[in-house]
Specification:
The complex is a heterotrimer of chains A (299), B (340) and C (325).
Chain A: H1 2-25, H2 28-45, H3 47-50, H4 87-123, H5 125-139, H6 143-154, H7 158-185, H8 188-195, H9 200-236, H10 247-257, H11 264-292
Chain B: E1 5-18, E2 21-34, E3 38-42, H1 49-56, E4 65-67, E5 70-73, E6 76-77, H2 83-90, E7 95-98, H3 112-123, H4 128-142, H5 158-170, E8 176-180, H6 188-205, E9 208-213, H7 216-222, E10 225-230, E11 233-239, H8 240-245, H9 250-258, H10 297-301, E12 306-310, E13 313-316, H11 323-330, H12 333-337
Parallel strand pairs in B: 3-9, 3-10, 7-8, 8-9
Antiparallel strand pairs in B: 1-2, 1-4, 1-5, 5-6, 10-11, 11-13, 12-13
Helix pairs in contact in B: 3-4, 4-5
Chain C: E1 8-20, E2 26-38, E3 42-46, H1 53-60, E4 68-73, E5 76-77, H2 83-92, E6 93-96, H3 110-121, H4 126-139, H5 144-147, H6 157-169, E7 175-179, H7 187-204, E8 207-212, H8 215-221, E9 224-229, E10 232-238, H9 239-244, H10 249-257, H11 297-301, E11 307-308, E12 315-316
Parallel strand pairs in C: 3-8, 3-9, 6-7, 7-8
Antiparallel strand pairs in C: 1-2, 1-4, 4-5, 9-10, 10-12, 11-12
The chains are: A mainly alpha (299), B alpha/beta (340), C alpha/beta (325).
């Protein structure tokens, strides 16, 4: 019987993944979003092998001339910067950074937000009040001054950027998941679970969490999207990671160079990528919206 | 018996498409309702009774396909009326509805009295004062105190809200009132009061009522004639007493066994195995066939026709002439269990 | 005659439950209720909405604490149990719920739902849980192969309720509290579920408290019947004694109000006035005073609990019993 159960668990996992896949591709828009996300993901994973050049190398073109501020050509697909750096390679490596920061920040913030939401919603009373006051205080915290202070104090390191983003973004998911937890906890199957002897911990994580999951995944996608935008904004202002470059960072370099009006290709590439990725994430999350709120489903 | 016919429905069919497939919600339903009687329609969930009513009241979505050979209210053919004409001329003034969960049908932000007054004024040329007087009269008829008109729905109990809805349905003196599960969800004592009130109202103002419910006890107490619906069709129709003394259709026989009564100590309860059908897809044959202990091969292939047993007693069953034997068998638990 | 000693399964001794309503108002949901449940009997608790029957269930199941009074199981008050004993109590007292559409977790398969109780309480090793679950599903008429991996939305109301029954009984409780398990099911399948419960109660030797507002059903399953009104226990006795020979004015009105599924029968009009109120800050005295046709001065002053009547088994909470025959 034990072997049967383990086999069942793997089967179950496969079934779950299949279900999620079906949810996302059921809608043409979200399926398109998924395609783009996978596209960017692949680029990020294989970045060092795809990038033709070192993004920090001053490039010389085939004629031996210093390739400064070249518009897109066969040699340099996305053009070059004023210092001759290959923008295509930069973009590819920046994809890695952006996705890394975005998914880590998004991931951590949804984990924190979901847990706080679940615990506050389930226990109510003083716990709820305390956690919600805490969330409210953070709502009052302005992002930019906060990140400026943090970076100025500790330097332009990845950890602090992620920290700053996470601290700001988990708020909304916490509130939303708390609201849904409150409505789920009143339902009769939770009373039934208590009657069967489930501990609070078991009820929160085994009974309520699976029911909050669609909403949670929706906000996970949103959180990643917001993280990316936030990181881009911070980088653009010069508070991005000092060691690597991200899409926002590329725009910062552009601004620093003073060539914004001239080098449209330098501006276009990272901006389009940011917009595309964020829209894709939002489109995919739309598929979960239908699951989270069954009334939106078509009859 | 020359009784005036208030409503005549012949071969009513309602079909609509859903994501899961076509649904034949009402299948060839024919019945008449005569003046001053209560015609009860009994059936469980999914039998089509709500769809039937909504079809008559034109409350179905546009995608629903409603077809009938006849729908006559008095002498008026309802099928040929435009929606606008129906809404202005017939709805509420000639035929009114006390909807299911009437308790939730009242608008929470308006006073109850105002809602009735508004309904009256929408269909008549009464001024506010006349309408208000009429509303007070109606409150009296249903047993609510007139000063309650100025209260909001949330200040009413469930029973009171139900009475308010009944008052609203009487507002324009319609010839026909349709009550869809009027006492479901109410406590026994409240239910008893309301049903008693309905009987008293009938005596006072001679109304014709169609009463729809799944509660067999309520329908037995209130109805003069009863129609039993299953799977979208009317399986049996008869005067109430005839239906109880000489039921014919296997479903009716099954229902009789399944309903407990506090007057029958030691009654053996027998349930009908299986569950009510989902109505999805065009089935062939009798909808009750798969749960019927008396099924023969013909039952799954052909849809039974209506057979007349007595002047007002009709049934849809191929084995209608074997009734006495079937009744005997149906009273034994073993007959039903053998289906499992 | 030798005195036969009875083993009480559970005894609710003068239990009261008050809820805090709006500031300075109290909802006295249950007041001084006193009854006992004997081994292997089915005790029906009947009453209209707001009578406190569900609150009583929750207190006996340990999901709510009484405001005063004690619930005694095996001669020990349940509020005095230590952690291990509470754990044991929880496995011994199980509930079956009313709404088959809401009492199952939509994300749990049938197998997981039934196995949840033993898993949560760590009653048996996983292998044994699987076997017990299979056996339990079979005894409620659901085959393992066909139902184990299905989800609630794929089941009918009757099937879901069977899953609910299975998940309550898989832990072999000695006491089952059924809170209106049939009221949301179609009429043609109710009898089947009722039969199932009766069969299982005999087979598996458990006592049952069956709560319902439907007296017709209680007549068929309950050995004894207790009638409650607005938090107060009004009458208790062998079921058909209470139904055919009600002593309390409320019970009489209630019995007369129940519709009879036979058009030839006429029933008397219930002798009761007014509308039901809510148990918020009730006045002193009997909870039925405002509606009782026989109420007198002392009814408004003294709260009364179940009193013996001429028939020992049959009790009613009324001091005017003799005068109102």
């Amino acid at each position: 019987m034990a072997v049967k159960t383990r086999g069942k668990k793997l089967n179950h996992l496969k079934k779950v993944l299949l279900e999620h896949y079906r949810i996302i591709v059921s809608n043409r828009l979200s399926a398109t979003g998924l395609i783009f996300i996978i596209f960017f993901l692949l680029i990020a994973i294989f970045a060092p092998w795809i990038a033709p050049n070192d993004p920090w190398e001053m490039m010389y073109d085939s004629n031996g001339e210093f390739a400064s501020l070249r518009s897109p050509s066969w040699e340099f697909w996305l053009g070059t910067t004023h210092l001759g750096y290959d923008l295509f390679s930069q973009l590819i490596l920046a994809t890695r950074t952006t996705l890394l920061i975005g998914s880590i920040s998004g991931g951590i913030s949804i984990v924190i937000g979901a847990n706080i939401g679940l615990i506050a919603g389930y226990y109510g009373g003083k716990t709820d009040e305390f956690l919600m006051r805490f969330t409210d205080i953070l709502y009052g915290m302005p992002f930019l001054p906060f990140i400026i202070v943090l970076i100025s104090l500790f330097g332009r390191h990845l950890e602090f950027i992620i920290l700053a983003i996470v601290l700001i973004i988990w708020r909304t998911s916490a509130r939303v998941i708390r609201a849904q937890t409150i409505s789920i906890k009143q339902r009769q199957f939770i009373v039934a679970a208590k009657a069967r002897g489930c501990s609070d911990f078991r009820i929160i994580y085994r009974h309520i969490l699976p029911n909050v999951l669609p909403l949670l995944l929706l906000y996970a996608a949103f959180n990643i999207a917001w993280s990316i935008i936030t990181e881009a904004s911070a980088s653009f202002l010069g508070f991005g990671d000092g060691e690597t470059i991200s899409w926002g960072g590329m725009l910062y370099e552009l601004w620093l160079s003073g060539k914004t009006r001239v080098a449209w290709w330098w501006f276009a590439a990272p901006s389009i990528c940011i917009v595309l990725l964020v829209i894709s994430l939002v489109l995919v999350s739309r598929a979960y919206e239908e699951v989270a709120n069954p009334r939106l489903r078509k009859r | 018996m020359s009784r005036k016919r208030v409503l005549g429905v012949k071969n009513l069919n309602v079909r609509y498409k859903t994501q899961k497939g076509p649904v034949h919600a009402v299948n060839d339903v024919t019945f008449d309702v005569f003046e001053n009687e209560v015609f009860g329609i009994a059936g469980e969930s999914g039998c089509g009774k709500s769809t039937l009513i909504r079809a008559l009241m034109r409350l179905l979505p546009d995608s629903a396909d409603v077809f009938a050979n006849e729908i006559k209210l008095g002498e008026q053919d309802l099928r040929s009326l435009s929606d606008k004409h129906f809404r202005e001329d017939v709805l509420w003034s000639k035929m009114s509805l006390v909807p299911q969960s009437a308790m939730n049908s009242l608008n929470p932000v308006y006073r109850v009295g105002d809602q009735i007054i508004e309904a009256i004024q929408a269909h008549t040329s009464d001024n506010k004062k006349t309408a208000r007087n009429r509303a007070a009269e109606l409150f009296d008829v249903v047993g609510l105190q007139p000063d309650l008109m100025d209260n909001y729905p949330h200040e009413y109990s469930g029973g009171m809200r139900q009475r308010a809805m009944i008052a609203m349905s009487l507002a324009l003196d319609p010839g026909l009132i349709i009550m869809d599960e009027p006492t479901t969800g109410l406590d026994v004592l409240v239910q008893e009061r309301i049903l008693r009130r309905i009987r008293e109202i009938r005596k006072e103002i001679s109304s014709t009522i169609i009463l729809i419910t799944h509660d067999i006890a309520v329908i037995s107490e209130m109805s003069d004639r009863i129609g039993v619906m299953y799977g979208g069709s009317l399986m049996e129709q008869a005067p109430a007493i005839d239906l109880f003394e000489s039921p014919c259709h296997p479903y009716t026989l099954g229902l009789k066994n399944a309903f407990p009564s506090i007057r029958s100590k030691g009654q053996e309860l027998i349930s009908i195995p299986g569950s009510p059908p989902t109505l999805i897809g065009e089935g062939t044959g009798c909808p009750f066939a798969e749960r019927c202990p008396f099924k023969v091969e013909r039952c799954s292939k052909e849809f039974p026709t209506v057979e007349k047993l007595a002047e007002f007693h009709e049934v849809r069953c191929f084995r209608h002439d074997e009734t006495p034997e079937l009744r005997e068998l149906a009273s034994k638990k073993g007959t039903w269990l053998s289906l499992k | 005659m030798k005195e036969v000693s009875r083993h009480f399964e559970v005894k609710a001794g003068m239990v009261a439950k008050y809820f805090k309503g709006q500031p300075n108002r109290q909802i006295k949901a249950v007041e001084s209720v006193n009854f006992s449940l004997e081994k292997n009997e089915v005790l029906g608790i009947a009453g209209e909405s707001g009578c406190g029957k569900s609150t009583c269930c929750m207190m006996i199941a340990g999901l709510l604490q009484p405001s005063s009074g004690e619930i005694i199981y095996n001669d020990k008050g349940i509020s005095q149990l230590n952690a291990e004993e509470s754990h044991w109590y929880r496995s011994q007292v199980q509930m079956i719920f009313q709404d088959p559409y809401e009492s199952l977790n939509p994300r749990f398969s049938v197998f997981d739902t039934v196995a949840e109780g033993p898993r949560a309480l760590k009653l048996y090793p996983e292998t044994e849980i699987a076997d017990r679950t299979e056996e339990m599903l079979k005894s409620v008429g659901l085959s393992l192969e066909k139902y184990a991996d299905r989800y609630p939305h794929e089941l009918s109301g009757g099937e879901r309720q069977r899953v609910g029954i299975a998940s309550a009984l898989v832990m072999e409780p000695s006491m089952v509290i059924a809170d209106e398990p049939l009221s949301m099911l179609d009429v043609s399948i109710r009898a089947g579920i009722l039969d199932l419960l009766k069969e299982l109660a005999t087979q598996r030797n458990f006592s049952c408290i069956y709560v319902s507002h439907d007296l017709s059903i209680l007549g068929h399953i309950a050995d004894r019947l207790m009638i409650m009104y607005l938090g107060q226990a009004m009458e208790i006795g062998p079921t058909w004694d209470v139904i055919e020979n009600p002593k309390h004015p409320y019970t009489r009105a209630l019995i007369n109000a129940v519709p009879i599924p036979d058009p030839r029968v006429q029933r008397p009009i219930p002798n009761i006035k007014g509308d039901i109120s809510r148990p918020i800050d009730p006045p002193p005295g009997c909870r039925f005073q405002k509606r009782c046709p026989h109420a007198d001065q002392s009814c408004t002053e003294n709260f009364i609990t179940l009193q013996a009547t001429s028939d020992n088994q049959h009790q009613a909470a009324c001091h005017r019993l003799d005068s109102i025959q």
